[in-house]
């Protein structure tokens, strides 16, 4: 190679190094960088890896999402009970969960994160590991019925709506034909039998109590001869009260109740010598006569 050609080659190499050197990571003037492989491969490989690191640091976190469980979109609760409204969230990350109550166009904040903001102490957040942000409502009332929203603080927020239905149980003391009773007559020495039907209950129950006046009869052992048999039905319960060898002290008001939610009462009369069936018919006839007399007076 001639001296002129060598001079041109050195000039081109110098310019090339001036362009490439700044692209080498951690390159500083005067540094000695050890190249263990082919020069061009080393340069482009390191530059490419640096770009990968930049992309990994700027990649967004996975978006949170609600667990797909349609069975929790509609919840039914009995009046006076406690109920959980479920909200299971995956990949929450740094986002926050809040519960709000929707009434028309108005939203009322109930909880934010793990803190409760409702003035109603019946509402609270009851988080269940690992990801269920449950809203707990105690002593459910009819005014609690409606829509609730579990919200994730994304932009825009992710929303899951839950509808709560509150059912009011029905309790009735009925006769042999299933008709409601107000008065029942028994002959002294006979067996008192009262039937109580509990219906419109979300789940079968046996929590039925009988009272004579203010005395609880379910576990009464003082009088003797008293028994209560309760069986669960598809939408409630059927409870029977038996009192053997009835006497005049057994007369009075009897109440059948489902906890403190609903109740029904009947007036029992234990008669000595009189025919109970005649007394029942007589009572009905007297009631009819009184009603006719009132109507006649009104018409005249």
Can you put this structure into words, describing what you see?
InterPro entries: Ig-like_dom (IPR007110), Ig-like_dom_sf (IPR036179), Ig-like_fold (IPR013783), Ig_sub (IPR003599), Ig_sub2 (IPR003598), Ig_V-set (IPR013106), Zig-8 (IPR037448). Residues 1-18 form the signal peptide. Residues 64-165, 169-267 form the Ig-like domain. This is Lachesin-like. With 300 residues, the chain is an alpha+beta fold. It has 3 domains: 3-58, no CATH class; 65-167, Immunoglobulin-like (Sandwich); 170-286, Immunoglobulins (Immunoglobulin-like, Sandwich). The chain is 21% helix and 38% strand. It is built from 3 helices and 20 strands. The strands form 5 sheets. A 6-stranded mixed β-sheet has the order 2-11-10-5-6-7, with no helix packed on it. A 5-stranded mixed β-sheet has the order 13-20-19-15-16. A hairpin with a 3-residue loop joins strand 19 (252-258) and strand 20 (262-271).
Key words describing this protein structure:
single chain; 300 residues; alpha+beta; Immunoglobulin-like; 3 helices; 20 strands; 21% helix
Per-chain topology:
Elements: H1 3-20, H2 39-58, E1 65-66, E2 74-78, E3 83-85, E4 89-90, E5 97-103, E6 106-112, E7 115-116, E8 123-128, E9 132-137, E10 146-152, E11 158-167, E12 170-174, E13 183-187, E14 192-199, E15 208-212, E16 215-216, E17 226-233, E18 236-243, E19 252-258, E20 262-271, H3 276-299
Parallel strand pairs: 2-11, 13-20
Antiparallel strand pairs: 1-4, 3-9, 5-6, 5-10, 6-7, 8-9, 10-11, 12-14, 14-18, 15-16, 15-19, 17-18, 19-20
């Amino acid at each position: 190679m001639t001296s002129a050609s060598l001079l041109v080659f050195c000039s081109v190499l110098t310019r090339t190094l001036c362009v490439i050197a700044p692209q080498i990571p951690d390159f500083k003037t005067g540094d000695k960088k050890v190249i263990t492989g082919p020069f061009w491969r080393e340069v482009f490989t390191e530059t490419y890896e640096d770009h990968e690191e930049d992309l990994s640091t700027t990649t967004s976190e996975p978006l949170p999402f609600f667990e797909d469980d349609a069975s929790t979109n509609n919840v039914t609760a009995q009046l006076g009970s406690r109920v959980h409204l479920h909200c299971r969230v995956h990949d929450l990350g740094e986002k926050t969960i809040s519960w709000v109550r929707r009434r028309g166009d108005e939203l009322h904040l109930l909880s934010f994160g793990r803190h409760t903001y409702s003035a109603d102490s019946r509402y609270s957040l009851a988080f269940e590991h690992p990801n269920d942000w449950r809203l707990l409502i105690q002593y459910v009332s009819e005014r609690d019925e409606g829509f609730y929203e579990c919200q994730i603080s994304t932009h825009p927020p992710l929303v899951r709506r839950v509808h709560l239905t509150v059912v009011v149980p029905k309790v009735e003391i009925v006769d042999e034909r299933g008709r409601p009773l107000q008065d029942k007559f028994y002959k002294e020495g006979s067996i008192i039998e009262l039937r109580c039907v509990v219906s419109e209950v979300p789940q079968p129950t046996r929590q039925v109590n009988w009272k004579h006046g203010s005395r609880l009869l379910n576990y009464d052992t003082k009088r003797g001869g008293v028994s209560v048999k309760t069986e669960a039905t598809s939408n409630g319960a059927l409870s029977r009260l038996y009192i053997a060898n009835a006497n005049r002290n057994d007369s009075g008001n009897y109440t059948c109740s489902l906890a403190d939610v609903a109740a029904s009462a009947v007036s029992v009369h234990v008669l000595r010598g009189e025919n109970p069936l005649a007394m029942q018919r007589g009572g009905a006839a007297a009631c009819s006569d009184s009603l006719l007399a009132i109507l006649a007076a009104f018409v005249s």
